Amino acid sequence: MPDFNEELTRKFEEEASTSAQEEAAARGALATFGNSLVSLDQTIPDFNDTVMGNGYREKISTGFDGIDRALNGGLTKRLYLISADTSMGKSTLVWNIAENIARNTAAARQEYDTLPEEDRKKTKPPKRQSVLYFLMEMTAEELTARAISRRMLEANEGKADKDIITPLTEDQILTQYNNPDEVTSAQQAAFTIAEHRFITDEAPYIYIIQGRKNVEDIALYVHAFMERENRQELVEPPPVVIIDYLQIMAPTIDQNGRPLFREPRLQVDHNTKEIEKIIYDYGTPVILISSVTKQAQGNLVIDMTALKESGEISYNADVVITMNIGLTQEAKEELKKAESKAQDQRNEARKNAKETSKRAYPRRLELTFEKNRGAVMGIKVPMLYYAAHNAFFDDPEDDKPRERVYKPDEIRPPQKNPF
Asked: Tens digits of per-residue pLDDT, 48-62?
C-alpha cells in the first residue's frame, strides 16, 4: 500500500515542475514578444527603403487621365474593387487598363532604346511593368480580339472622313476567316497593322492565366512569377494583378477535395484576407472585378449598398469604384414625364431609361469613387465607352462624344448630341 505522504509529495513535485515549465515558456514568449517591440524612432532610418521596396512611392498610370487624377497619380500597393451591373463594361475597362499599362511600358523602353549610346549609359533603364491577368470566364483569344478592335478604332482618330476605315468588331475578328466576304481589303490591312502593334507593344507585358482559380492558386502564381523574376536577376516592380471576377473564383478546397466554406459570403471573406496577404507580401496592386447583388441588378444607380452580398470585400478594399450609365437626353425626358405617375410606372421608366442609354453609341458612363483611401472620396469620372469596339476614352471636358472616330453611316453611328 503506497504511503499517503509520499504520494502527496510526488504529486506536489509534479505539479510544481509543470508550473515551472509553463512559467519558463511564458517568460520565453514574453521575451520574444518584447524583442519584437521596436519604437518608431528605430524604424525611421529604414522607412525610405521599406516604402521604395513595397511599391508605395511610384504610381502606375492606368492610361486614363480622369482615373489617374482620382487616384492621385495611379495604382499602388492597394486593393481596387470595380463593380457595376451586368453588361456595363467592367471587364472591358479593366482590360483597357491592362493594355494601357503594357503600352506605357513598351513606349518607355522604346524611347530608351532610341537614345544615343552615351545617353543610355547615363540614363536608368525603364522598369518592366507586367500585368498578371486571371481570366476566369473568357479566353485569351477573345481578349486579343478586343485589343485589336480597339486599336483599329483608335487608328481612325483625327482622320478625315474619306480616310476612315470601319474597324472590325470582336466577333468579326474571331470569325473573319469563316466569312472573308464580309471583310474588305482595307479592313484586312488595318487589322494586320493593329494585330502587329498589339503583339509587339502589349502582349510581352501581359500574362494571361485562364480558367477558374481559387485564391490559393492566385497566390501561388504570383509567388512563382516573383521567384522567376528573382532567378533572372531582374529588378522589376511587382506585377499588377487583375482578377476577373470575384463571384466566379473557384472555392477553397479542404483536404478531402471538398469546398471548405459552405456559405459564399464566408468564401468571399476568406478571399479578401488572402488577397490582402498577397498585396502585403509582394507589394502588388490588385484590381478585383465584382458584380452587384441580385436585388440591385437593373437599378438606375449602383452604389455601395449594391455590394452587401459580397461579404467584407467592399469594406476591406482600399478603393471601391462603381460604374453607372450616363442618361441620354431622350432618357432624361422620359424620366421627367414619369415623375407624376404611379410608383410601378416610375420604376419601369427608370429601367427603360437605363436600357435606352445603354444603346447610345458611344455610351456615356460615370465612375464614382465610393471609397478612395489616400485620395478624395466621392469623385465622379465621366467616360465614353465604344462597346462594339471594346474601347474606353476619357470623356472630353465639353461632354460631347469624340468626332470622326469612324464613318457616321457605318456600324452603329453615334446619335447627334445624345447627352
From this structure: 555 555 444 579 999
